[in-house]
Structure formats: C-alpha cells, structure tokens
Design a protein that fits this description.
Layout (H helix, E strand, L loop, with lengths): L1 H24 L2 H19 L6 E5 L5 H8 L3 E6 L2 H13 L5 E4 L13 E6 L9 H11 E12 L9 E4 L12 E5 L7 E5 L9 E5 L2 H10 L3 E6 L5 H6 L5 H4 L3 E7 L2
Parallel strand pairs: 1-2, 1-4, 2-3, 4-5
Antiparallel strand pairs: 5-11, 6-7, 8-9, 10-11
C-alpha cells in the first residue's frame, strides 16, 4: 500500500509542470473535457458559493480553486504534489484571491478541526487516492453539519479498464462521432489500479483507481454522508457541434459527479 501511494505521488510530481501548462493554456482534450464538460456541471451543482468556506481536496495547480475564489468563496486547497502547490502559490502571488494552499494528503486532514468547512470539492481527485475510504471519512469529519461534499470521477460504469469505441470501419481509430459504432465496456469488477500517460509525451505514468459505483456509495454511507444527487454531465449542443469528438460524452457519459450531504 505504501509503495502504491509513493508511486502515485511521484507520478503527479513528475508531470506537475506539464500539467500546469495544459490547464493554464487550455490545450488538448484533457483540458477541454474539464472546461466544457465538468466545469459547468460542478459550478451548477455548487450554486452560489459566496462567503462559504470551501475545501478543494486534490487541487492540482489550483485552476478550480481560483474559479471558486473568483465567485466569492473562502477557499482552502491542498494537493500531495509539492510542485503543484508551488505553481498554485505562484499564481496566487500574481493574482491574489485569498486562497490558502497547502501540501497535504487527502487521507490525513489533521490540520483541520471538525466541522470547519461548508463545502468540500474533489474534482477528479478521489480517483487518485489509494486510501479513499479514509479520505472520505476525513472529509466528512471536517464538514459542518449540513455541509456538502461534491466529487467527480471517471464514470465507473461507462469507462472501466480497457473500454473503447468500436470503429464503424474495422482496423481504423475512430476520432469523429460518425466513425464510432458503439462503446465496448467490460471488466467492471474488480476495483484496481490503472497506469497511463495523461498526454502522449508526459514524462511519467499517472496512477489512479477504478472502483465500482457501489464502493463509493458504501464508503459515503460508512462516513455518515447521504447521497443527494448524481450528475452525468455532457457538453452543450453548441460545443458538440463545434467539437465533434465531444459528442461521445452525450452518447456514453465519461464523467460522474456525486453530491452528498452531512446530516
């Protein structure tokens, strides 16, 4: 377990500067899927965050933390990769938004007292955490009663390991929507780690985890959190028209956003 945790942390540390460049320039499908699919879903679900104390768990280089702060939230954000936090703090120095950035492990939030935050966000970050049960329990602990936890994941049902689009023309790689016949989905069980490169020339592999949807539901319940909503976001029609490759999110949702509340 310790080795997997160290491997995951080292992978994100190795790609931190490249990731920062992708996120801040908005280049590539990795950035566009967040900007055009997940950002609107998260922001709509969160609603008005003015003056709310928000914890951004696994904030990376701080892109979404800055979006929340610009909307009036009092944001505390952390990540396990030190270079990510260095880059986030550099952006804070250039454009101060009052964000408190820290290097922390999501499974150990000992720096925070119980019932500290109104909202907690884990934007595609819980999938990178080995001990996710402890992480969710810690997030539940630092939420005030009535506080909410919003987290997004790669859709466990629609994007398990080795899932892929079947091309209409055998032997070709389907890029455009018209070239995609259907999505092949298999290997839902068991939960397991995945290794891949975030972009083709990334200097290191990234490690994250596929988990069945029921695992998240059971863990939330064990932490005393109640699921209040589930979203399977897809882009606006205008975006899908302009970027045909995004239509696959409409045919088979790639992301899932779960809302849970602490009673």
């Amino acid at each position: 377990m310790t080795e997997l945790r160290a491997e995951g942390a080292a992978g994100w540390e190795a790609i931190a500067d490249g990731w920062t460049h992708l996120m801040r320039t908005g280049t590539g499908g990795v950035a566009e899927s967040r900007r055009l699919v997940l950002d609107p879903a998260h922001l709509t679900a969160l609603g008005d965050v003015t003056d709310r104390r928000v914890l951004d768990a696994g904030c990376g280089e701080g892109r979404f933390a800055r979006m929340l702060a610009e909307r009036g939230a009092n944001v505390t954000a952390f990540d396990l990769a030190e270079t990510m936090i260095t880059n986030a703090r550099n952006a804070e120095e250039e454009t101060p938004l009052g964000i408190d950035y820290r290097v922390m492990d999501m499974a150990d939030l000992g720096d925070f007292d119980d019932a500290t935050f109104d909202l907690a966000i884990a934007y595609l970050s819980i999938i990178d955490v080995l001990d996710y049960e402890k992480a969710i329990a810690e997030i539940a602990r630092v939420l005030r009663p009535g506080g909410a936890f919003h987290f997004s994941v790669v859709h466990p049902c629609h994007a398990p390991p080795n899932s892929s689009w079947e091309p209409r023309t055998p032997g070709t790689f389907p890029v455009f929507d018209r070239d995609k016949l259907y999505k092949k989905i298999d290997n839902y069980y068991p939960a397991r780690e995945l290794r891949f490169r975030m972009w083709p020339t990334a200097p290191a592999e990234t490690l994250n985890y596929h988990r069945p949807l029921s695992d998240y539901a059971h863990t939330l319940r064990a932490a005393g959190l109640q699921i209040t909503d589930i979203h399977e976001p897809y882009p606006a029609e205008e975006e899908m028209t302009q970027r045909d490759y995004l239509r696959e999110h409409y045919r088979v949702p790639f992301f899932m956003l779960i809302e849970a509340v602490k009673p």
